[in-house]
Amino acid sequence: MYSLLLALIYLAFISLGLPDSLLGSGWPVIHNDLNVPISFMGIVSMVISGGTIISSMLSDKLTRKFSTRIVTVSSVFLTVIALFGFSFSSQFWMLLVFAIPYGLGAGAIDAALNNYVALHYTSKHMSWLHCFWGVGTIVSPFVMSYALTHSTWHSGYRIVAFIQLGIGLLLLATLPVWKASRQSDEDNAKSIGLVGALKIRGVPYLLIGFFAYCAAEATAMYWASTYLVEVKGVTIDRAAGFASLFYIGLTVGRFLGGFIMNKLGDRKMIILGTCILSCGILSLLIPVENPTVSLVGFIIIGFGCAPIYPCIIHSTPSNFGAENSGAIIGIQMASAYVGSTFIPPLFGLLGNLISFAILPVYLFVFIVIMISMTELTFKITARRGGREKSA
């Protein structure tokens, strides 16, 4: 039963990743079809992010009231509605309407499952959980590419919607598996809420650190291609291909990292990942004409990023108590979405005003903030008697 439930959780995280890269891969065609400027993708993304922030903040209360399994299954069907809505949209305003249930569903799944795995499974499973999210983000662009080749972008969303529907029906049919599994005793306890969580010593530092990490990760994801073209003189098609290796480095890193996480523990894995991605950032600063160094640099950055997100999440129950983890992880997810939503556009503005060559320095600033805040969090919780969960 334990293994079956874990497989279902992995499947749910694939469903979380599937829609995430659809918008970006299809937007060059979508914006022309809907007759809106290419920059309008940012509006859709902001609406989605707004929904994820709201549902992340509410996830602890919802999970305690309805249970993780109900929140997960309901949220998957919410994203199914959104994806089918996207597939039938013929006006830009329709995308904005259906972006709301997509954001709400995605945020609830993310926070609820992250907390459940942090409470009931070891570090390696948290790493592999996010690896499966990466699988979803890698698969969906191929789906959109197939749809654009043989039909329209609407078909791409419709195909993913049917896949998501299948996953949702499977999760619905296997609800008894969740009920028969270990349940958290704190599910029925009262939520400490946002204010209560922020009063816990160390939590504000953790949120700043997580915000900074997600800001750096998203900036690297979104601006890698532009940096390679504008600064390193790489051709557009080659830059797009190599920038995608960031996602592969991230996914492969999380798969391989799972084999050593239980041995090293969350804190050491965060430090190791920071050292690796710092090497990748420094490689971007090497003044050589051959762009291969920078191309490899982004792969290294992705590989280094791999353990940081899952390990920060997984360490939350041991640092702040299982009874508080649901509320804190929900706020962490919200801070993550704020960082990944607002900081990459800020770099775009700075890049236009100064130069896109500042990307390595920009990334390094946020990485320094991240490691400083997370280390401070671990030191505070260690003094209070918390200890890192490594098994």
Structure characterization notes:
It is a single chain. The chain is mainly alpha-helical and 391 residues long. Helices cover 83% and strands 0% of the residues. It is built from 18 helices and no strands. The protein has helices spanning 2-17, 22-33, 41-66, 68-87, 92-120, 123-150, 153-173, 175-180, 193-199, 203-230, 236-243, 245-264, 266-284, 292-305, 308-314, 316-320, 322-353, 359-383. The longest helix has 32 residues, at 322-353. The chain is globular and about 55 Å long. Residues 386-391 have low confidence and may be disordered.
Strand content: under 5%
- H/E series: HHHHHHHHHHHHHHHHHH
Q: Count of helical segments?
A: 18
Straight-line N-to-C gap: 20 Å
- The gyration radius over C-alpha positions equals 20 Å
Topology:
Elements: H1 2-17, H2 22-33, H3 41-66, H4 68-87, H5 92-120, H6 123-150, H7 153-173, H8 175-180, H9 193-199, H10 203-230, H11 236-243, H12 245-264, H13 266-284, H14 292-305, H15 308-314, H16 316-320, H17 322-353, H18 359-383
Helix pairs in contact: 1-5, 1-6, 1-7, 2-6, 3-4, 3-5, 3-17, 4-5, 4-7, 5-17, 6-7, 6-12, 6-15, 9-17, 10-11, 10-14, 10-17, 10-18, 12-13, 12-14, 13-14, 13-15, 13-18
Please give a quick description of this structure.
By secondary structure, this protein is mostly helical. It has helices at residues 2-17, 22-33, 41-66, 68-87, 92-120, 123-150, 153-173, 175-180, 193-199, 203-230, 236-243, 245-264, 266-284, 292-305, 308-314, 316-320, 322-353, 359-383.
